[in-house]
Amino acid sequence: MGGYLPYVDFTEFALALGIVLSALVSLIGTSARRRTVALGEARLSDLAELTGILESKRLMAVFGPPDMGRTWPGVTLLEVRRARTPMGWLMSSDLVDYACIAGAVAALVFSHKLVPLGMFGALAIQVAGWVVSTRVPK
């Protein structure tokens, strides 16, 4: 990366650490949401984040109406995976989060002129996932 020598290594390390921590938080949140779906207690926010479908009417069209407790007890993880949109991949895909972690670690380990590009790609993906997740209904 460019910059002045005393700050180059610190900046790369700080960016990589931020990407890894962001991906770990995303993995933990995704795990908790998948657990609620597996237990039959899926709420609107859980399904919206896992699928990327942010409108409640579209969610009801895909999964049917909720029960009296405003949960979807009959929804399975396979149905959620089939209904996933690109925004769902950004917010709650383990594969994407692991790839971001790998890109951040690779930028620290390897010295090639294209490796920082992978780290910036991972940073962009993590930021996009957090921005999209602000639109999830509560």
Any overview of this molecule?
By secondary structure, the chain is an all-alpha fold. 71% of the residues lie in helices and 0% in strands. Helix 1 packs antiparallel against helix 6, helix 1 (5-38) packs across helix 7 and helix 6 (94-109) packs antiparallel against helix 7 (115-133). The chain contains seven helices and no strands.
Number of distinct helices:
7
Helix content: over 70%
Largest sheet: none
Radius of gyration: 18 Å
Averaged pLDDT: 90
Ends: how far apart? 40 Å
Structural class: mainly alpha
The portion of residues forming beta strands comes to under 5%
Q: Name the overall outline.
A: elongated
Task: Give me the count of strands.
Answer: 0
Q: What low-confidence regions span 5 or more consecutive residues with pLDDT below 50?
A: none
Offer a concise description of the structure.
This protein has 138 residues and is mostly helical. It is built from seven helices and no strands.
Features:
0% strand; mainly alpha; 138 residues; 71% helix
Secondary structure elements and their pairing?
Blueprint: H1 5-38, H2 44-51, H3 56-63, H4 77-82, H5 86-92, H6 94-109, H7 115-133
Helix pairs in contact: 1-2, 1-6, 1-7, 2-5, 5-7, 6-7
